[in-house]
Each structure stands twice: as structure tokens, then as C-alpha cells.
Q: What sequence folds into this?
């Protein structure tokens, strides 16, 4: 009876079984190659605008007239415990590579001039922008990454299937030692756009004048943070930048 219970493969079954094994091995090989490719970081060559490697390389990308006016190389003034967080998934452009750290979406940017820095920050902070930047977003707030970053990933046009998110902690003191600038987005927006001077204070003065005169205040051009106010904000940019240069 024991012999009858033993499965017997005939010739056709044996061929099918061997073919299945070959298919599984081929799939495993492809998956291994894809995994190795994902773990392989971009080439970090300094020439031709590639990723910087040493502290001197980072400083070389930052030097210029704008660095003298508004330093980035020594700009780290972060609150808290100097630990920042970044949550990524399969759709994230700035990825962490094993033993190599996080790489930005592109390797090069004009950080030597005011306009170059302005454009990079403008593109990076615009969530509807699809152009790559050499800036990496991090947050010091655990609440922020849970309530904002992860929810934003869930709302992506093509969200990743399954839960493959990765939380990375970054030691900013180590970044500073390596010459990597760590900036506060709020400070940079205030410096490059001067929102309060261009938008808030004039609106406040008009609102207060209308209140004292008993008139209803009607904003001119809408708010700068909404689509209907972008035209007004773009018209203000040259004047704001000119005023900022005069103050310097």
C-alpha cells in the first residue's frame, strides 16, 4: 500500500515539472537583478555636474555671490533633537540606497546665484511640479509625517500596491560635518519671496483703512496661495526681488 501511495511521474509529468522549475529559476533571477539594480546608487562623479562626494565638492557647488549674502554652507539652525525623518515608497524620486544614503532626484542645480536657488526652492515646494530638483524634503515632526506625508502618498495618482513604505532617520549633525546644507523651508521662503512684505502687510493696511472708513474690504487679485491669485503674485515678483536687493 505504501508503494501505491508514492506519487509516480510519467514522462509528460516529468517534463512539465522540470519546465516549471526552470520558469521559477528564471523569475527568481529577474527579481534578483531588479533588486540589485534598485540598490545600486547613481554614480557619484563630481565632473560634468554629477553628485558631490566630499565636503569640498559640496562647498564648490555653493560658492558664489549669493553664498556671501545668504549662506547655505553654515545655515543649519534647526529646532529639536537634530533628527529628521523621511518616509518613502516605490514612487518616491529621492531614494535611499543601502550604505550610501539618500540621493536627490537630480544631481545638479544652480546654487551659486540667487535666481538659481530661488528657482530650485520654487520648484521643490510646488507639489504640482514634476521637474526634478537637487533638494530632499525632510521633517522634524513625527506628527507631520504621519498626518501629512503618508496621506499625501495615499492620494498619488498611481499609489503603490501594498504597504512598502520606508521610514529613514537622518542625523543632521553628520550632514553638517559632510558639508551638506540643511535649510528651513520657512526661512528660505521668507528670504526669497518676502511674503509678508509683498502680500500680508499691504493687505492689512488696505483692510484696516476700509474698516475705519466703514467700507467692505475686497482683496485685489485674490490670495497668493490660490490659483486665482498666481497672476497677481507673478506680477509682484520683480518688485519683491528688487526691494530685497536694495535692502542688501
A:
Amino acid at each position: 500500500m505504501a508503494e501505491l501511495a508514492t506519487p509516480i511521474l510519467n514522462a509528460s509529468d516529468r517534463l512539465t515539472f522540470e519546465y516549471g522549475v526552470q520558469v521559477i529559476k528564471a523569475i527568481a533571477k529577474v527579481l534578483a537583478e531588479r533588486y540589485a539594480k534598485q540598490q545600486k546608487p547613481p554614480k557619484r562623479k563630481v565632473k560634468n555636474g554629477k553628485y558631490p562626494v566630499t565636503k569640498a565638492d559640496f562647498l564648490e557647488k555653493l560658492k558664489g555671490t549669493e553664498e556671501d549674502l545668504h549662506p547655505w554652507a553654515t545655515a543649519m539652525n534647526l529646532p529639536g533633537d537634530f533628527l529628521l525623518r523621511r518616509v518613502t515608497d516605490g514612487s518616491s524620486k529621492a531614494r535611499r540606497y543601502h550604505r550610501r544614503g539618500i540621493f536627490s532626484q537630480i544631481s545638479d542645480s544652480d546654487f551659486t546665484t540667487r535666481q538659481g536657488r530661488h528657482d530650485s526652492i520654487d520648484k521643490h515646494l510646488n507639489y504640482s511640479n514634476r521637474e526634478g530638483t537637487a533638494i530632499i524634503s525632510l521633517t522634524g515632526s513625527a506628527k507631520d509625517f504621519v498626518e501629512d506625508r503618508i496621506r499625501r502618498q495615499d492620494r498619488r495618482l498611481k499609489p503603490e500596491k501594498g504597504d512598502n513604505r520606508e521610514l529613514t532617520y537622518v542625523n543632521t549633525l553628520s550632514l553638517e560635518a559632510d558639508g551638506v546644507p540643511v535649510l528651513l523651508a520657512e526661512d528660505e521662503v521668507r528670504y526669497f519671496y518676502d511674503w509678508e512684505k509683498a502680500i500680508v502687510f499691504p493687505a492689512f493696511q488696505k483692510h484696516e483703512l476700509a474698516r475705519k472708513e466703514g467700507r467692505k474690504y475686497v482683496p485685489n487679485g485674490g490670495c497668493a496661495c490660490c490659483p486665482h491669485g498666481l497672476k497677481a503674485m507673478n506680477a509682484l515678483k520683480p518688485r519683491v526681488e528688487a526691494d530685497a536687493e536694495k535692502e542688501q
